[in-house]
Amino acid sequence: MNQPLILIIEDEEPLRRFLIPTLTGQEYQVLSAATATEGLAMARSHNPDLVLLDLGLPDLDGMAVLRELRSWSRKPVMILSARNQERDKVLALDHGADDYLAKPFGAGELLARIRVALRHTLQSDVSEPVVCSGGLRIDLERREVSREGSPVKLTALEYRLLEALARRQGKVATHTQLLTEVWGPGGAGNTHYLRIYMAMLRKKLETDPTRPRHFITEPNVGYRLNLEAPGD
Ligand code: CA
Q: Which residues surround ligand 1, an ion (CB under 5 A)?
């Protein structure tokens, strides 16, 4: 089996020292760069399967690196963001990054996110019609939703929101992305719609809507559907 190649573009040496053995221990091949220039050169010469990209690099803004990568590659890019990069992180997601990890993060979280991002690449050509999260099953082709085998009725907007999350196969969706996809280009400012409809989805689909296991809130960023949720 081919081992996926992961490129790390990160100037913090301690973080690279943590990332490299964590990834090689999982049979990933790893390349690492400490500057944007070096990282972009490695990306062009090796075409990695996934890029872990720090937004705060010494020579070039991480957003510029993302734009350059996106001009020729659709492979997943995962942002590594520090706490003071909240706005940049959302901007990066809205401009084509696939996901983010907020520093500090643990090995378990890192590896789970990488699995999701790589699975998404493998499936992106064959659109996956059925998405499951624990006991929740969403059939995107037949537009049917069931919980523990029982069908659940959703309104058109509730379904559209669920579909927007399900199509991302576990990746984060930003507020702007969800609002535009569900309510159209004019919907982008209405974050309160999203809160209201997310509460309705949780009420219908979560066992305990106050402690959601399927619909995860990413504070100040958006939401994701947890594909690794346990059954009810
Ligand atoms: Ca940095």
A: 11, 54, 56
CATH of 130-225, one of 3.40.50.11600, 1.10.10.10, 3.30.230.10, 3.40.50.720: 1.10.10.10
What token pair was written down for 169? 């196969």
Render pLDDT for 87-121 as a digit per residue (tens, 0 to 9): 888 999 999 999 999 999 999 999 999 998 888 66
pLDDT tens, residue by residue, 19-49: 999 999 998 999 999 999 999 999 988 989 9
**Mean pLDDT across the chain, nearest whole number?**
90
According to DSSP, the β-strands at 77-81 and 99-102 are parallel
> Looking at the domain that runs over 5-125, which CATH code has it been given?
3.40.50.2300
Question: Would you place residue 208 in the very low, low, confident or very high pLDDT band (cuts 50, 70, 90)?
Answer: very high
First to last CA, the chain: 34
Q: How far apart are CA 191 and CA 87, in angstroms?
A: 16
In the chain, which segments carry CATH 1.10.10.10?
130-225
Residue 221 CA to ligand 1 center (angstroms) comes to: 20
Distance 43 CA to ligand 1 centre (A): 18
| Helices and strands (H and E) in the chain: how many | 8, 12
Is the pLDDT reported for residue 127 higher than 50? yes
